[in-house]
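Reopening closed ticket. The problem is back. First fold of the pair:
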Amino acid sequence: MRSNSLRNMWLGIAALGVAGAHPVAAYDAGSWVVRAGAAMVDPDTSSDAIVIPTEPATVLPNGVDVDDDTQLGVTVSYMLTDQWSVELLASTPFEHDITLEDAPVDAGSTRHLPPTLTVNWYPRGGRDGWQPFIGAGLNYTYFWDEDTDGQLEAALGEIVGGPGADPIPADLDLDDSWGLALRAGVDVPINDNWAVSASLYWIDIDTEAEVSTPVADVDFDVEIDPWVYMLGVSYRF
């Protein structure tokens, strides 16, 4: 699994960085810290059942699943004091494929951006060397470019009209999401300005999905709630 590989890489880079760390200038009030690297969104999806209004109703009890994606992640952090910072997470757009859990059917895809603002605590702030941190804040996830797949439209046609029926055209819409974000990480210094950086987020992303067809509209809730793993470098100035 790619998620397991990235977790192992996250731990490995942190361990190597700790082993090679040297005392360097501390993070202190007024410092800016910019981090950049690979960011993987790994959804822990939980979906409502999908009820298709046939006669009798067709129920897909396990709903949908959302796959992972890796993009460029960037954070900008400002040290308010030696131990507290405010930070903004940004990225290039993530794209996720969506599948039906109860059938081998590609349902569609979506793109999203998850800007996240957190307040972080550095227990070693003001001291030289490695800098672990934890934080919490608010996420806003904006969905766009939602598409349905031809496999889903063909499956809907057979569910409603029976085997061999024509596909039913469908549109997908996902509501934007506001939610809590938790985060932890560590910067392991290479020199006075550069460090190896590893970060972990958990983000509460809940959306209402609507699949619209000429026959009927189907609404259901999806909790995406991803873990986000970020590996890269940081620069302090």
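Second fold of the pair, where the issue appears:
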Amino acid sequence: VYVMSKNFSWSSKVGEAVKSCVKRGISIRTISIGEIDELKYYRAKWFYDHGVDIKVIRTKIHPSLIDADGKEILIRLDADPAKKERFVFTSIWSKDISLARIIDAYVKNAWKMGRPINFEKIKPKPLSGQYGK
């Protein structure tokens, strides 16, 4: 599974799904859209500590997406991609093989171009709620 994420959204359902996938041997690779800063450090670190490989691509605007085995995709298109909170978005979930193959090739190339994250170089903000919220 490949994921492109700007905020490392987390919920108990997502947490359980990640743990279940990793336990079954499913590889999850997340590409951070933009740097992992002190605001999203704890969420990103949670994924990393639970077996998710993470790389960073330096860009500010990019759709969030999930690619499952190059067969099924989820793309989130933000109405205002520069806005950080309370934004309107549309999701596209598709098993269309032609679209899935295009997205699969794209995210695999993005993964190759991304750089590994080094959590030692990031100074997190003090926790004020679950995973830095």
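Update: turned out to be a display glitch only; the data is intact. The longest helix spans residues 97-113. The chain has a mean pLDDT of 86. Please close again.
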